[in-house]
Amino acid sequence: MNRLEGKVEPNNISFEEIYEGYEQSFQHLVTVDEVDSFAKLTGDYNPVHIDTDYAKLTNFGKRVVHGMLTSSFISTIIGMRIPGPGSLWLSQTINFVNPTYIGDIIEIKAIVTRVSRSTRTVTLSISITNQNGLKLVEGESVVRMLEVKKEKKVEMNSIQKVVLITGGSRGIGAATAVKLADEGYFVAVNYVNGKSEADNLVNEINSLEKRAIAVQGDVSKWDDVERIFAEIEDQVGPISSVVHCAAPTPIPQLFEDLAWDIFQANIDVQVRGAFNCAKRAIPQMLENKNGSFVFLGSIFTDGTPPVQQSAYVTSKAALNALAHSLAVEYGPKGIRFNSVNPGMTQTQMIANIPDKVKMLTKMNTPLRSLAEPVDIANSIAFLLGPQAAHITGETLRVCGGIFMG
């Protein structure tokens, strides 16, 4: 038994440790200040409690402590001792057996009479006695012990979100870098030739007290991919997500004038680039049992494709197929693969498309507008984030409704 000196120390017992017959108690000295404060708090200025002269004229002969003040310590023993912190008081019966007086040392005792594991409730037999062993209050409490989910304790390095964005120095890749940095990712902006653009983007992100680095390399080449990943891992840590945006500029060209080299360049950067990044990232993701990829496809792989874009559209279709295949293979291992298929988007990539074609596309789009890079970036961030934790093998079309299916 502990004499209460202003505070009862918590009894951090788990619900599973509580058993029938388990008991807790503590003592408390009732003071005149407590009685006066209780009267002020409740508005109960009954003279039998607060007026010494009046109380002398009663059969008690002195001031009587409010019955609810005495029984209020039931809350203390429930909340601090049994079941303790995290308990919720459900019901209470109270019998006031004898009066409590100022100066009494009261003992509050609770004994477990029933435990329900399924409902996480306990029933307590409550008694409050004074220093002479005289019972003042008796009753029964029903209390539920709340179940709180414990946070996983992990090292900061293991929860750091590190994303590699290929082709991330401009357009949709750059917008995605800004969006993901704002979402708390450490962003690695990959580029091949656009060093100044990548550096400017990284400086912009870092100036906003976000985190980003630029990494040069051609993702169609395995040695470059190995170096890109090693550089990021050395500076930041393991990569948790990959956004594959790298793609050659889709210059319109008649098939009869098209050399295989153009096809090969598209396949190498888009499909082989995704292949190389997945090959390099997956082993670490398997170790962490978590990872996410988003491949940037194109709405042109749905419905009727545009003319003179066979190399670009074919590669995008293959990229979607790769995402679906890997989603099936690695879904059971906690790694997700999805695609975002944008419609025509206001980037440098459509600079070679005639304004008439852009206007026609805009007017044929139900939303009557072309997408902005941030529209695509928002969708990519969604697929990487926890809200999409149960989505894999999906192709998310961000096209203003120009294709519905």
List low-pLDDT spans: 1-5, 151-158
CATH topology of the largest domain: Rossmann fold
Query: Quick one: how many beta strands?
Result: 12
Largest sheet: 7 strands, parallel
Total domain modules? 2
Helix run count: 13
What portion of the residues fall into strands of 2 or more residues?
Answer: 15-25%
Distance between the termini: 72 Å
CATH class wording of the largest domain:
Alpha Beta
Can you characterise this structure?
By secondary structure, the chain is an alpha/beta fold. It has 2 domains: 15-145, Hotdog Thioesterase (Thiol Ester Dehydrase, Chain A, Roll), CATH 3.10.129; 156-398, 3-Layer(aba) Sandwich (Rossmann fold). It is 37% helix and 22% strand. It is built from 13 helices and 12 strands. Strands 8-7-6-9-10-11-12 form a 7-stranded parallel β-sheet, sandwiched between helices. A 5-stranded antiparallel β-sheet has the order 1-3-4-5-2. α7 packs across α13 (373-384) and α10 (260-288) runs parallel beside α11 (310-330). The radius of gyration is 35 Å and the shape is elongated. The termini are far apart. 35% of the residues are buried. The model is unreliable at 1-5 and 151-158 (pLDDT under 50).
